[in-house]
Amino acid sequence: MITLKKQKDHEHKITNERGTESIATSSRYPVDGFSPVDYLCSSVGICMGLTVDAIIERDQLEIDGYTIEVSATKDADARPSRMEKLDVSIVFEGDVDEKTRNKLEKSAKRGCTIGNTIEHGVPVNLITKS
Predict the structure, then answer these.
(1) pTM for the predicted model, two decimal places
(2) Cys staple from 108: which of 38, 48, 86, 129, with CB 3.0 to 4.6 Å?
C-alpha cells in the first residue's frame, strides 16, 4: 500500500509500507519532487527493468547494464484527462546481439505487470473512510 499525506503549507509525502518516503509535486509548486506522470513512467521503467533482470539472471547473460527511458504524451483533448501513450526505450551496454536484444525487449514488455495493467485497464475504486 502507498499512503499520500498532505499537510497545509507542506509538500505531498508518499510513504510505502516499508516507511520509505518520497515527495510528490507538480510543475505548479516550487518543490523538488516527482510528478504523478513521473511516478507513472518510473513504475513502467522499473517494472520492465525487473523483468529484464530476471531474464538476464535466468539465461546467465553477460550484459554490463542497461538504461530504460520512459516518456509520456498527454492527450490534450481527452476528457477525462489522461495520457495518450507511453514510449519506452531500452539501451543495453556492451556487446548485445540483435537476437538477444529483441528477446529482452519483448520479454520486458510482455512481463511487465504495470505496463499490462495500463494497456488493458483496471478499475480505480474510491473507498471512503472516516
Answers:
(1) 0.89
(2) 48
**What integer is the mean pLDDT of 6-26?**
90
Reduced to 3 states, what is the DSSP secondary structure of residue 58? Answer: helix
11 Cβ contact list (under 8 Å, min separation 6): 23, 24, 25, 29, 31, 33
Cβ contact 55:10 at 8 Å: no
In whole angstroms, give the CA distance from residue 70 to residue 73: 10
Helices (H) and strands (E) in the chain, counts: 3, 5
C-alpha to C-alpha distance for 9 and 73, rounded to whole angstroms: 30
* Residues in a beta bridge with 27: none
Instruction: Dump pLDDT digits (tens) for 68-97.
Output: 999 999 999 989 999 999 999 999 998 999
CA distances from 59 to 15, 53, 77, 79, 129 (A): 35, 10, 44, 44, 47
Residue carrying the nine cell digits 551496454: 93
CA distances to 17, 26, 63, 74, 110 from 23, rounded to whole Å, are 15, 10, 33, 22, 30
